From TrEMBL, chains A, B:
<dbReference type="InterPro" id="IPR036291">
    <property type="entry name" value="NAD(P)-bd_dom_sf"/>
</dbReference>
<feature type="binding site">
    <location>
        <begin position="15"/>
        <end position="22"/>
    </location>
    <ligand>
        <name>NADP(+)</name>
    </ligand>
</feature>
<keyword id="KW-0791">Threonine biosynthesis</keyword>
<dbReference type="InterPro" id="IPR002912">
    <property type="entry name" value="ACT_dom"/>
</dbReference>
<comment type="pathway">
    <text>Amino-acid biosynthesis; L-threonine biosynthesis; L-threonine from L-aspartate: step 3/5.</text>
</comment>
<dbReference type="GO" id="GO:0009088">
    <property type="term" value="P:threonine biosynthetic process"/>
</dbReference>
<dbReference type="InterPro" id="IPR019811">
    <property type="entry name" value="HDH_CS"/>
</dbReference>
<dbReference type="InterPro" id="IPR001342">
    <property type="entry name" value="HDH_cat"/>
</dbReference>
<dbReference type="InterPro" id="IPR045865">
    <property type="entry name" value="ACT-like_dom_sf"/>
</dbReference>
<feature type="binding site">
    <location>
        <position position="194"/>
    </location>
    <ligand>
        <name>L-homoserine</name>
    </ligand>
</feature>
<keyword id="KW-0521">NADP</keyword>
<feature type="active site" description="Proton donor">
    <location>
        <position position="209"/>
    </location>
</feature>
<dbReference type="Pfam" id="PF03447">
    <property type="entry name" value="NAD_binding_3"/>
</dbReference>
<keyword id="KW-0560">Oxidoreductase</keyword>
<feature type="domain" description="ACT">
    <location>
        <begin position="353"/>
        <end position="433"/>
    </location>
</feature>
<dbReference type="InterPro" id="IPR016204">
    <property type="entry name" value="HDH"/>
</dbReference>
<protein>
    <recommendedName>
        <fullName>Homoserine dehydrogenase</fullName>
        <ecNumber>1.1.1.3</ecNumber>
    </recommendedName>
</protein>
Length: 437, 437
C-alpha cells in the first residue's frame, strides 16, 4: 500500500481546553518531533475552541490559537479532538467535522453512551475514523485491545472497575475502616471526587463506560439506558468489614456479558473474592478484566482519569487516525527512528538485597558497612537473623540481610566482591536485585 | 478514505501446524462469519505448510490444505501467518511473502529478536504489514498498546513477567515451599515446561521477548544479544523464604528502560515488593507493567502461552492486516453487526450474599432455607455470627450471613422479599452480589 497523501502537515483542531485539553496541547507541543516521526507527517494545531477566549489559561496554551467559533474551526481541520464533554454542542460539532471529511478523536463517554451510533454511522458514510480510547478507563488501552486484538476471538464477559472515585472511596473504607461519608469527603479533599459526587457515587459514570464497552465487546448497540445501575451510596462500613470476614472486597463493578438471553450490562457494588486480580486494584486506579473464549482471562490496569493520563490516550488515537490519513492505515513496520544507544548492563541502576553469613562478633557490621560507603552505595536496611552456629568453628555465625538504595550494577557488584574478601565474612549466600520498589 | 480493493476473499496461508497452528485453523473456521464482518471480506485459508503432510493431525485441519511446499504457498497468499518458529526457513519464507506483496503475521519471537529489522525494512519497502502481537506475552495485547495506544506518550520503563514456566516454578516455590528442582519437575508434569527446560529456566525465552519489547517501546533496535540475562537456576527455597520475610516475592523480570545512558534491557530474578501489581501474578500467567510519562502506570495481564491464547493474538493481527488490505486501514466505526438482543437485567445470573438479623431461636434457619429452596436457589454457605442482643425485646438476635450459588436476579430478589416477610426475621441488613468467583 503506498501513501495516498503527500506528507504535508495535518491540521488538528481541539474542542475544549480544560484539564484534559491543556494536557493535549502540552503533549502535541512537547512531543511534536516524535509524533511527526510516528505519523509520517507533522501535526499542526490550528485552533482551540473554548467558550470564553478571554478566560485565564495554562501558559502551555498559545492564546493566539483560542477561538470561540468552534463550528468554523472544525471545518478547517483534518483531525478534530473533542474533550469538551456533554451531549451538545459536542454532537453537532463532531457531525459537522465528519461531514467536512475530518477524522475524530473524542473522550466524550456521555455522548458515545447516549448516541454513539449516530456518529459512527456518519463517519462510516464519510469514510473517516472515530476513535475514543480515552472515553473508557482513561489511560488504559482497552478500546483498541477489545476492538482489534480480540477481533479474532469471542469475548464472553467483561468485569470493570471503571470509576476511580468510587474505587478510592471503597478502598479507604476497606483499608482504613472509614465510613462512606468520611471516605467521600476525603476523596473530595484530594480532588478525586467532585463537589457533587452523584455521577460517580451513584454509578452514572461507570454505566456510560459500561455501555460503550458492551457495545464494543459484543458488536451490539448498548445504550446507557440499557445498563442497570446501582451506586455505592448504600454500602456501609459494616458491609465492608463483613466482606473481609468472608474473604472478599467490595468493588463497584461494571459487568458486561453475553448469554443465551442476549447481551446484558449492569453496574453495582459486588463482593469480589480477595484472590481475584480485580481485588488488588487500589486507590483511584481502574481495571478491566476480560474473559474471551480463546485468549482466556486478560486484565488491563491503570489510571482511569486525570489530565495527563487521559491526554495520553487521546494522543495515541490522534497518531492512529493521522497514520490512516497519511499511510492508508499502515504504520511503519520499521519504527526504529529513535536509535538510542544501548546502555552497558553495568550502568543499569538497581538495588541489591544481599544475604551473608559472618562471624558473630562485634565490629563485623561496621567493616561491611564501610565497604558500601567506600563505593558510594548507601544501605537502606540491615536485618540480623540469629542462626544456629554452623558447627565449623568456635565462633557463632550471624546471618545478615542487607538491602541497598539505588546504585549502578558496577558499584553494587564491586561492593559484593569486596565483602566476599573480608576475613569475617564466611559466605555471601545470595545476591538478588530489588525492582518495582 | 474509500475501499481500495473490492471485498473479494483474502487468501490466507499458514506456515506451521503445531499446537498454535491447529488453534489458528480452528478459529479461522469457527469464526469465519464474524471475521468476514470485522474485515469487510471473507478470509479463505488456501494452504497449511507442514514438514510432513502425512503425519497425524487434529481433525480441525482439513488434510486437503496441507502442503510441504511452503515456498510455493506463500506466493499465492494475501496474508501469511507464520507459527513454525526458529530462524530458518521462517525468515526466508517471510521475506518471500513480503516480496510477493503479502502481509505477514508472525508469532516468532526468536526470529524477531534476532533479525526483526530485516523483515520490517523489507515490509516497509513492499508497503505491506508485519504484525506480531503473539510473539510477546501470548494472548496479552501488549504490542498494539505500546505501538499504538502509547504513540503519543513517552515510555520510560517496562517490567515484564514474560515467561509463564518460570513464573509457575517461582510461584510454586513461594506458595508451596518447593525447591527449584521439584517445582521444575511439577511444571514438566503439567506441560508448562519442556523436557529440556533450559530456554525457560535460563531466561533465553524472556530475553527474546525483552528485545522485542524494548525495540518497540523505545523505537530503537535492540537485539537479543543486547539483553543481559540471568535465569532462575540459582534461586533457592531459602531465597524465596527470605524474600517473604522482607515483604517481597521473587519473579523473573524483564526490565527495559531508557536512561541518560541509553536503552537497556535485562532479564534476571528480582525481589518485587509484595504490594506491587506484578507480585500478584500467579501460576503460569504473564504480565507487563509499563511506566509512561503521561499515562503513568499501566499493567497488562493474561496467558502468555498455549495454543488457544496465542492463536487469539494471531487472529487479532490477521483481522488488522486484512482490514488494511480491504479498507485502507480504517476499521468500520459502526461495528454493530451482531445486534444481539439486550437481556433484561432480571435474567442476569449472579450470586447473593445476604446478611440478616433473626430471632435467636430454633427453627428460624430452617424457615429461611425453605424459602430459598422453594425458589430454586441453592445456598453455598451460612455463617452465624453471635451479636449482642439489640435490646429491643426479650429475644436475642442472631446475625446470619448467607451466600447463594448462582441464580437469576429474579429468583434471588424474590427470595429476599420472601425472607423479609418472615416473622422471625427482624432486618435484612444487606444484600450484595458476588462476582468474579
Amino acid at each position: 500500500m503506498v501513501p495516498v497523501t503527500a506528507p504535508t502537515a495535518l491540521r488538528v483542531a481541539l474542542l475544549g481546553c480544560g484539564v484534559v485539553g491543556t494536557q493535549v496541547v502540552r503533549l502535541l507541543t512537547e512531543q511534536s518531533a516524535d509524533l511527526a516521526a510516528r505519523v509520517g507527517a507533522p501535526l499542526e494545531l490550528v485552533g482551540v475552541a473554548v467558550r470564553d477566549a478571554s478566560a485565564p489559561r495554562d501558559p502551555a496554551v498559545d492564546r493566539a490559537l483560542l477561538t470561540e467559533d468552534a463550528e468554523g474551526l472544525v471545518r478547517r481541520a483534518d483531525i478534530v479532538i473533542e474533550v469538551m464533554g456533554g451531549i451538545e454542542p459536542a454532537r453537532s460539532l463532531l457531525l459537522s467535522a465528519v461531514a467536512a471529511g475530518a477524522s475524530v478523536v473524542t473522550a466524550n463517554k456521555a455522548l458515545l453512551a447516549e448516541d454513539g451510533p449516530t456518529l459512527y454511522r456518519a463517519a462510516d458514510e464519510a469514510g473517516v475514523d472515530v476513535y475514543y480510547e480515552a472515553a473508557v478507563a482513561g489511560a488504559i488501552p482497552i478500546v483498541r485491545p477489545v476492538r482489534e486484538s480480540l477481533a479474532g476471538d469471542r469475548v464472553r464477559r467483561v468485569l470493570g472497575i471503571l470509576n476511580g472515585t468510587t474505587n478510592y472511596v471503597l478502598d479507604q473504607m476497606t483499608t482504613n475502616g472509614l465510613g462512606l461519608d468520611d471516605a467521600v469527603r476525603q476523596a473530595q479533599a484530594l480532588g478525586y471526587a467532585e463537589a457533587d459526587p452523584t455521577a460517580d457515587v451513584e454509578g452514572f459514570d461507570a454505566a456510560a463506560k459500561a455501555a460503550i464497552l458492551a457495545s464494543l465487546a459484543f458488536h451490539t448497540r448498548v445504550r446507557i439506558d440499557d445498563v442497570s445501575r446501582e451506586g455505592i451510596s448504600s454500602v456501609t462500613a459494616d458491609d465492608v468489614a463483613w466482606a473481609a470476614q468472608t474473604g472478599h472486597v467490595i468493588k463497584l463493578l461494571a459487568i458486561c456479558e453475553v448469554t443465551d438471553e442476549g447481551v446484558s450490562a449492569r453496574v453495582h457494588p459486588a463482593l469480589v473474592p480477595s484472590g481475584h486480580p480485580l481485588a488488588t486494584v487500589r486507590g483511584a486506579f481502574n481495571a478491566v478484566f476480560v474473559e474471551a473464549d480463546a485468549a482466556g482471562e486478560l486484565m488491563f490496569y491503570g489510571r482511569g482519569a486525570g489530565g495527563a493520563p487521559t491526554a495520553s490516550a487521546v494522543l495515541g488515537d490522534v497518531v492512529s487516525v493521522a497514520r490512516h490519513r497519511v499511510l492508508g492505515g499502515k504504520g511503519p513496520a520499521e519504527s526504529h527512528y529513535a536509535q538510542l544507544p544501548i546502555a552497558s548492563p553495568q550502568e543499569a541502576v538497581t538495588r541489591y538485597q544481599i544475604r551473608l553469613e559472618v562471624d558473630d562478633r562485634p565490629g563485623v557490621l561496621a567493616q561491611v558497612a564501610q565497604l558500601f560507603a567506600e563505593r558510594g552505595v548507601s544501605i537502606e536496611a540491615v536485618r540480623q537473623a540469629p542462626r544456629p552456629a554452623a558447627g565449623d568453628g568456635p565462633a557463632g555465625v550471624a546471618h545478615l540481610v542487607i538491602t541497598t538504595h539505588d546504585g549502578t550494577e558496577t558499584a553494587l557488584a564491586a561492593t559484593v566482591a569486596a565483602i566476599e574478601g573480608l576475613d569475617a565474612v564466611q559466605t555471601v549466600t545470595s545476591v538478588l536485585r530489588v525492582e518495582g520498589a
